[in-house]
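Lecture notes, structural biology module. Today: joint structure prediction for complexes of two components.
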Amino acid sequence: MDLSFTPSELAFRDEVRGFLAGALPPTLAEKVRNGAALDKADFDQWHAILNAKGWLANTWPKPFGGTGWGPVERHIFEEECCLGYAPRIVPFGLNMLGPVLIQFGTPQQQAEILPRILDGRDWWCQGYSEPNAGSDLASLRTSALREGDHYVINGQKTWTSYGQFANKIFCLVRTATTGKPQAGISFILVDLDTPGIEMRPIRLIEGGHEVNEVFFTDVRVPVANLVGAENQGWTIAKFLLGHERTNIAGVGYSVQAFKQLRALACQPQTDGTRLIDDPLFAARLATIEIDIEAMKITNLRMLDNARKNGAPGPEASMLKIKGTVIRQSINDLARRALGPAAAPFPPDQLDGNAALVPPDHARNAMRYFNNRKLSIFGGSNEIQRNILSKMMLGL
Amino acid sequence: MDFQQTDDRRLLRDTLTRYLAEQYPFEHRTQVAYAAPFHDPVKWAEMAELGVLHALVPEAQGGLGGTGFDITTVFEALGSALCPEPFLPAVMAVQLLGSGDLDPLLAGHRYGVGLSKVSVQDNKLSGRLSVVYGGGAAQTLLVVANGALFQVAAADAKITAYGMIDGGGAAEVFLENTPAKRIADHANLAQAMDAGTLALCAEAIGAIDASFAMLTDYLKTRKQFGQTIGSFQAIQHRVVDLMTEIEQARSITILAASRFGTDGQSRAISMAKSLVGRVAQQVSEELIQLHGGIAMTWEHPASHYAKRLVMVDHQLGNSDAHLTRVAAQYFKV
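The predicted structure, tokenised, for the full assembly:
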């Protein structure tokens, strides 16, 4: 039983820390720390910095321009990025499509597309969910009908994250309506400039614009844009789900948010008292700290398991459930900690002397509402429970 | 990073688990756990012979273990079989006796540890020691008075032994100018409490694992409405939540064991006891609820596991008390 990293892993952690200290622009870190919305230029800037270092595609093998890291290095990198308030790597091209192409794509697709993901020429978004296909993804209805050398796509995708920044979308589409619903799905790449596509923003609960809906009307896509075989899409989607699960517990986010919350609680309030001296608040904080400390170990145990068995097993669903609930509980306490000062909306209207709270807490209420998404996306926590019940308990 | 136990500890775990399965079957356990002397002196001697006590004592003091993971390995196995033998006072006695003479303990001499306040005058103790675990079976009592450690022969004290609701024995010990031997000027009670608390966390994890296995088996066999009750989503989601909390409880206990003997020991062990206490009660209540009426019967093992899982939170500080200790660190900022 040994809970510590090896000397070479520790050296790697120090290398990542050193890199972040020198390469992460303070303006970006400040935005992340304050929970401000990042724009395309912010993400592009960070991606370019990582790409120059050779650390951008950390789920790809080396021959494709990736880092070739194992799960432990990836974990260390992600944790350090969280702790240093680096922007997250936008996963759609790098952590989702990239691994799919490496596994299922033709050499031509790999050669054309992967370099454009790395250097930021292409921004991919994900076309999976539909208004009537959420948790029941296999019931999706956006159709792709073969007409000569093209597929003609009709339908609607939704919850398309950062679609407003994207020029490409990878989609699950229906190419057969007979047999099981899963057996008639294909994975296809679409240029968002193709005639017949319309993207509309969805304004979210806290007022931000992260997701979109995408409408397809007689959109003609070359057959060569198919990834894998026709009707093999479900297999690809399931493969991709495995890659979506890196950093699924988000322990780094929790540690970082907890640190900010604890610092806030140590500040004098308007009446001169400190929240940290309120035994009820301190107990709530301690409850969360205990959950985080346990989660760190649970995460490492599963990482150790993944390293020994090659891939994360269904137990990753536990990390997803508990990790998201912990993050939400921190957001909840951070919002409550502000009392009436949590109310100003948008907080940016209170600049300088008018600000009620430190800048990294001005958006606590927004963060709380926005992060209710955590237990819904990436397979809702209820779907994760179904998976665990079946795969781990055999019920 | 490696979450596998060493070969030595796996051997210890397997040996003890096999012994308990063969020599301490559940019927026997239920028999001895609820009738005086609330343990089985023959089995106790056999387990001492087997080296269980040696595992709790560092090599420097003649043992073979004594680290946090040795303690958790032993107590997980004990908890899994709901073993009522008085190992908790033994692990605390090891810490209190420190570099003193541990030979009697290693040979199976039984200690009781008094945690109540008593007064001392001319090496004579007066006061009442309440809920002394294993107090009825103890041959020697270790008592802290005025910060010093005293040893009292059980025969010299007035002892009222009783069984506990979840099995095993405790006692009320009355001292009235009882002769005592001062064996250390400074009693390291905090260390003994930490070791005992860590042991209880591990014991709970063992009992939790056995309970959870029992529960999932039951869900796969019990049929209602023509199907196994484990096929109902309302039940599946509760059991998955339980499993998730159990893994968290296991993780924090691993963390606590790894910190045993370091500066961060007390805080990590309090974190563990707080979380484990909460999860153990959750497992207990779900074990009863999802088994239905059968878990309410004395005859079914689930009822005995359920009791132990709740009552472990009554020993050496409950969930809230340890949470308060964790939170107390914040005030020092």
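Point to remember: The mean pLDDT of chain A is 95.
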